[in-house]
Amino acid sequence: MTPLRSADCGSRIGNTDPPSIRNQSAIRNPQSEILKRACIAIMALTLGALATVPALAQRGFGGGRFQTPIAPNAPYDGRFTFVRIRYGPDYGFASQRLPWSHDYPAGEQHFMKIMNEVSLLGPHIEETNILPLDSPDLARYPVAYLCEPGGWTMTDQEAAALRAYLQKGGFMIVDDFRYQHWPNFEQQMLRVLPEARFVDLDITHQIFHSFFEIKTLNVPQYYDPPPAIFRAIFEDNDPNKRIMVMINYNTDISEYWEWSDTGFKPIDESNEAYKLGVNYIIYGMTH
């Protein structure tokens, strides 16, 4: 059987031919082996961080005064690349004062290391991309990540571009989402998809079984008061069709990704956050 080929990633959007990236033979089993590999990878991240403790300060731990330069985007080469959505002006740096940039770049780099360990996706690991919604390059990438939607705003051009991206097959993950920020997110999404319905998901939905078998949605919370709430926008508002937007509401799973190399939280909790992320990527690449 043909393994998942990362070079096919760019064909996922706007292509009516069945892409080979949907081949489920890319998934390694059994799950016990996968979990073991993930645990080893997280432990390696932690040990590496202990040798470079000053780097934690540079990542903004404990305050918002630190600025992290934005690295150049990786040139498109067909490999899976983590794409973070930027909203607002491009200042050339990430900061706690720029909500869209929270957890950059450690969050996605750590996540892609785990993704590389447990699948044959072969993603870029150190190189991650940041794009505005109206960038023509966004259509090259099947999965996009939006952070901190409480302060999210769009131009009409960006709203139209996101609508086109989703309707052509794009999949957007929304994370790092405070409970009180729902009204703004809903308002912005209804500019994109005026007829959109927001559906609460339960554990039976296939996205929670697309790779790992998620046992419960009562997931650990880094700092938000429980419970985490998982919602989705479906194509044509039909729950039998694919999810276009996966919403992690009242939770922040990427916080675990960012700080999984520090030992601040138990490895088991970080594992749960990684399992959700892996499932989302596999789902987005196969639907």
CATH-defined superfamily: Domain of unknown function DUF4159
Write out the strand line-up for the largest beta sheet, numbering strands in chain order: 5-6-9-8-7
Element order: H for helix, E for strand: HHEEEHEEHEHEEEHH
Please give the radius of gyration in angstroms: 18 Å
Beta-strand segment tally: 9
What is the fold named in CATH at topology level? Answer: Rossmann fold
Shape: globular
% residues in beta strands: 5-15%
The helix tally amounts to: 7
CATH-defined architecture: 3-Layer(aba) Sandwich
Class from helix and strand fractions: alpha/beta
- What percent of the residues sit in helical stretches (DSSP H or I)? 25-40%
Estimate the mean pLDDT confidence.
86
A few lines on this structure:
The protein has 287 residues and is of the alpha/beta class. The protein has a single domain, classed as Rossmann fold (3-Layer(aba) Sandwich).
Describe this structure in words.
By secondary structure, this protein is of the alpha/beta class. Mean pLDDT is 86; it is low at 1-12, 14-28 and 49-58. The longest helix is centred in the first third of the chain and has 20 residues, at 31-50. The protein has 7 helices and 9 strands, in the order H-H-E-E-E-H-E-E-H-E-H-E-E-E-H-H. The chain has a single domain (6-286), classed as Domain of unknown function DUF4159 (Rossmann fold, 3-Layer(aba) Sandwich). The strands form 3 sheets. A 5-stranded mixed sheet has the order 5-6-9-8-7. Strands 1-3 form a two-stranded antiparallel sheet. It has helices at 31-50, 54-58, 106-118, 156-167, 182-192, 253-259, 267-286, and strands spanning 68-69, 83-86, 93-94, 129-132, 143-147, 171-175, 199-200, 229-234, 243-249. 41% of the residues are buried. The radius of gyration is 18 Å and the shape is globular.
